[in-house]
Amino acid sequence: MSAASLVGYSSSGSEDEAEAATTTSPGAGGRPGGPRPSERFPVPESVLNMFPGLEEGPQDDSAKHGGRVRSFPHERGNWATHVYIPYAAREEFLDLLDVLLRRAQACVPRLVGMEGFHLSLSHSVVLRHHWILPFVQALKDRLAAFQRTFVGLEVTSGHAQLLDLVSEVDRVMEEFDLTTFYQDPSFHISLAWCVGDARVQLEGQCLRELQEIVDEFEDAEVPLRVLTEQVRCKSGNKFFSMPLK
């Protein structure tokens, strides 16, 4: 496998209103003795919080994510959705990450190592709650015939197979009128992140030194590869797995 390359980069209400306006009138079988909708007492917030609706996606708090802000605002019933290949980091990968992060932080001290690793097969898109299961089923149908493959760090092997996967994911995106992935994607695993654009500090000598670390690691150790066994879809706080043959 050729040496991996390092890269630096920046990274509906109307339905709800209709539901809220639906009430039962005495003439339609309601209890005539009950108060009219305009006279109902408001439900205490402490009670409402005990029964969060399934239509409501998880609440976003940027303070819990190091200052990162979602690319689109949260709206009731909208679920941020992303299709990707999970990467289970092995000890040699984490060793490499530790060395790279220490060197990169000398250039950009605010860099933070990633806690989880993956290869994206789609942009983050917005799905309505009732679209989630049909969307996932469409993905399963499209990906059912795909076999497992090995991928490496930028990725330098398995690129053609990943393009085939993206093509099928794009077809599902088009079925749901959602944004497709990049036309000529460069598949990679993100190693670290920071708030703001730090490309200027990382480019040049710093990036060359980081690349040298990767080259030396690959010459001395077992190549960084992973057997891709599944594609995963995350929608809000729900996860769906699609096994590959």
Automatic annotation (TrEMBL):
The organism's place on the tree of life at top rank: Eukaryota
EC number: 3.1.4.-
Keywords on record: Hydrolase, Lyase, Nuclease, Nucleus
Subcellular locations according to the entry: Nucleus
Cellular-component GO terms for this entry: nucleus
Example of a GO biological process term: U6 snRNA 3'-end processing
One GO MF term: poly(U)-specific exoribonuclease activity, producing 3' uridine cyclic phosphate ends
Catalysed reactions, semicolon-separated: a 3'-end uridylyl-adenosine-RNA = a 3'-end 2',3'-cyclophospho-uridine-RNA + adenosine; a 3'-end uridylyl-uridine-RNA = a 3'-end 2',3'-cyclophospho-uridine-RNA + uridine
Enzyme class: hydrolase
Primary residence: nucleus
Active-site residues, as the UniProt record annotates them: H118, H188
Region of interest: Disordered: 1-69
UniProt function note: 3'-5' RNA exonuclease that trims the 3' end of oligo(U) and oligo(A) tracts of the pre-U6 small nuclear RNA (snRNA) molecule, leading to the formation of a mature U6 snRNA 3' end-terminated with a 2',3'-cyclic phosphate. Participates in the U6 snRNA 3' end processing that prevents U6 snRNA degradation. In addition also removes uridines from the 3' end of U6atac snRNA and possibly the vault RNA VTRNA1-1. Phosphodiesterase responsible for the U6 snRNA 3' end processing. Acts as an exoribonuclease (RNase) responsible for trimming the poly(U) tract of the last nucleotides in the pre-U6 snRNA molecule, leading to the formation of mature U6 snRNA 3' end-terminated with a 2',3'-cyclic phosphate.
Family: Belongs to the 2H phosphoesterase superfamily. USB1 family.
Subunit structure: Interacts with PLRG1, CDC5L and PRPF19.
Name listed for the protein in its UniProt record: U6 snRNA phosphodiesterase
Source organism of this protein record: Oryctolagus cuniculus
Lineage of origin: Eukaryota, Metazoa, Chordata, Craniata, Vertebrata
